[in-house]
Amino acid sequence: MDFFLDACEGLVENAARIPDDDTPISLADTKRWRSLFGFTTAEAEKEIREWRSNLGREHLTDFAWEAVKTSAKGFDKESYEYALGTRRLPSTQPTTLAAQDRQSGSKEANGRRMGSASTPKNIRFLLRLEGKIPTVAAAQAIGKLDRPPLKYEGENEDGDTTEFCIVDTDAKKRILQGLADIKSAAQPFFIRLREAEKDLSAVCRYPTLGIDTTMPQHRVGNNERPTPGQEEYPVWYVFYGTLADKDILGRLLQRPGGVDQAALRPAYVLGGKLATLGKYRALVHEYGPGGEPVAGSAFLVQSREEEDALRHYETELYAVVRCIIHICSGSSGSGDVDREGKDLEVNGLTFLGAA
User: Fold this and answer.
1) In DSSP terms, which residues pair with 167 in a beta bridge?
2) Neighbouring residues of 152: CB distance < 8 A, sequence distance ≥ 6
3) Residue 151: beta bridge partners?
4) CA-CA distance, 281 to 275, in Å (whole number)?
5) Where are the strands (E) in 156-312, listed by range?
6) Is 241 helix (H, G, I), strand (E, B) or coil?
7) Residue 157 vs residue 272, higher pLDDT
8) φ and ψ at 250, to 5 degrees?
9) Which neighbouring-strand residues pair with 347?
C-alpha cells in the first residue's frame, strides 16, 4: 500500500535534508530552547542541530499539535516534538496520550481494565536495511523470526533508493537481542509507524466500546471466542466523519473502481459518544446504560492491507476497539438513525479517539 511507501520516502527525504554543520541556527530558536530547557547558547545550538539531524525523530501530526499548542506556552511545534522525544516536557505541560503512557506505566493497567486506548503493544516499525542487517533474510536470521518481514523501498527526489522492512515490537526486541548475542556494536535504525493501535485480546472482550471487560457479566465463556479476532478478515467497521466519505475511502483503499456508496451502509453503535478532540470529532467511551446511539456508516473491510491503510490514516491518536454494529434496515440514504425497523447486529470494529 502507498502509505508504507510514503513513510519510507519520508525517511529518505529526511536523510537528504540533514543540515550542514555550518547552517546557522536562528536567534529566535536559540532563545526559545534556552528558555524552555535551561540550555546555554552553545548547548541550545548543539541540541537543535542534533535534533534536526536525527532521522528517527517523531513528528506530531497537525491534529495533535492543534490539540496541545494553546496550552503549550512558549513552544513551537519543533521544540514540542523535541520535548516529547527526549522526555524533557515540563510536568505542567499537557502531553499527548502516547507521551503520557510512556511516562506512567500505571496508565496501561488502568486503560486495559476499562478497555480504553492505552500504551500501544502492537507497535510496528520500519527497519532500515543496511550494515549488519542488509536484507530481510538477515533480519530474520539475526532475530530468529518465524518468517521474513515485509520489504519496502523508498525513493527521494534525486532517485536515491533506501530499503526498509516492517517489524513489530517483539521482532524489534529479538533483532536487538540477536545483535547483542553476537556482540555487535551496530545500532539498527528503527522508526515507529504512526498508526492506530490494534490489540484485540483472544481470551476476553478487551477492548470493547463502552464496556469494562473485567466485570463478570462481560466475561467470555470457557468455549467462547471473542470476535472479531486480531487477524480476522473480512471484518465490519463502523465509520464516522471523514472515513464515511466514499471518495476519501476509495482513495485510501485503492480499490479498482473506487468505493460505491451502497457499500457504506447506515448504522449506529451504542456505548460511545462523539467528543471534540482538538479540532475534530472523535468517538470515545460512554459507560453505563441509557446512552444515545451514535450514527455512522458500516463498511466491510476485506483484508489486512485495507485495514493497515485505515489505521495509518487515523494515526496513533486512535485505537481499534470491538463494538456491536447495528446496521439499519429502515435508514434513509443520509445515514440518519431509524430504529423502527429490524436492525442487523454484527460484531465489528471502530476507531476510538485517544481521550
Assistant:
1) 125
2) 4, 5, 8, 126, 163, 164, 165, 166
3) 165
4) 5
5) 161-168, 190-192, 197-198, 235-239, 265-269, 272-277, 280-285, 294-301
6) helix
7) 272
8) -60, -40
9) 324
